[in-house]
Design brief:
The structure holds two protein chains of two kinds.
Chain A (H helix, E strand, L loop, with lengths): L2 H12 L5 H13 L1 H18 L10 H17 L1 H8 L1 H25 L9 H6 L2 H9 L17 H6 L3 H9 L1
Helix pairs in contact in A: 2-3, 4-5
Chain B lengths: L1 H4 L5 H9 L3 H23 L2 H18 L9 H30 L26 H10 L2 H12 L4 H8 L3 H24 L1
Chain lengths: 175, 194
Amino acid sequence: MDCYSFDKVISDYIESNLSAKQKQEANEHLAQCPACSEKLADMSQLLGALRTLPRPVTRPDFESRLMARIERQKQQKESPFIHVFHEYSRVISVAAAVLLFVATSLFVYTSVVLPGSPASVPSASIRSVEPAAALPAAAAGVRPEQAGGVAEKTLPDTNRVQNPDYNSRIMMVNE
Amino acid sequence: MMDKEKIKFTDEELVARFQQGDERAYIELVKRYKDRLLNFVYRYLNSFEQSEDVVQDTLMKLYTSAHMYREIAKFSTWIFTIAANLAKSELRRLKRRRVVSIHTMGYDDSEYEIPSEDFDPEKETTSNYGEKQIQEAIDTLPDQFKTVIILREVQQLSYEEISQILGISIGTVKSRINRGRLRLQKLLKDLKVR
């Protein structure tokens, strides 16, 4: 047996798994090879060291943490909606933020950029409408002008914006 | 009732009881295996925090997948297979993270570790080899040798059990253990020289 062959059976030699013939060949090699003898002694020591390595232990609250995890999972199984909510909470928050942003943008766009939209009408003109005066006349089949009141809807929309005296006129007619 | 009897139950009997809905059997299995699994995973990952997490995941898996266990294999083999797979995934994740942190870490940054009581990684073993040296050498071993060395030398499992856990033949296990031991020996010699 040479050094290379001994390397191949060194574990079996240590664990006494060699046949009688193999063991004799290994012993003969060891008797004449100090390097392999040293390697064998060193290996035995290393294996002993590996077996006596300190053993870490789990922290005292290990079991309570595990049982808490199990409880949480049980609850999630019982209420799948909550589970889905927890699972996708980040996606849901982002979607809600995007929706809020879109809604706000739409509101700002319609009220500032689009002319003639209800939101863009000056608040004074809205206050000038006198439904109390206009509606009874309409209900009686009388034209608003005849009843002494002016209904805002009878005027074209352009008047609201183009005629600056519009509000004061309405106020005067109503008085 | 069960507390008095539990010593009599084998692992396989406990799993059978748990499969029938007896949660006390599960708790008993947790008590039996939590530290054994931690010992294996810790030597594999060399990080106490991450190892405890992996053991928690393994025992969670036992809780949710106990119905998948069949008594054709020993329970210990089955649970170590789960732990080994989870530990491998965790090690891959940690390696990726370490690669990233090399570029982002300052000199003062270090990983936060809370080792358990009575556990001192600096402690010298009974031989000339210090634990720290041995762990450093184990970390350097290629994965195929590292797993078998830990299962055999640290966990002291039989060749047959290792063969079942890793899904390889007994011949391959023996060969890997022999080559792994020689590599480890060489690595430790190199470490001593440094």
